[in-house]
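Re: beginner question about structure tokens

> Can someone show what the tokenized structure looks like for a real chain? I only ever see the sequence side.

Sure, here's an example I had lying around. Input first:
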Amino acid sequence: LPAPRLYSSTQLEAYNLGAGKGISVKEIIETFEKVNAVKIKWSFAPRRQGDLPSIFADASKAKRELNWEAKTVLGESLRNAWHWEQKYRKLNK
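And the corresponding structure tokens:
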């Protein structure tokens, strides 16, 4: 359930959500392929101007203010997202 703070405030807030661990795009792709038994066509490309070498979500504000923390691991999250997408596509055909 959402934290009461979300309902009691009239001010908009931004929260980063993450598991406290950096994950590469390559690791996300490989994990997605493994847990969903699909193959994704991808390739490496040079970094574009302005691309950061790494970036991580700091979820400490969400933990502190909302008592929120990640409860699922990457593979489970990717499997759930893919199953939701497949179901959504079927419903909207």
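Each token stands for a local structural state, so reading them left to right follows the chain. The chain has a mean pLDDT of 89.
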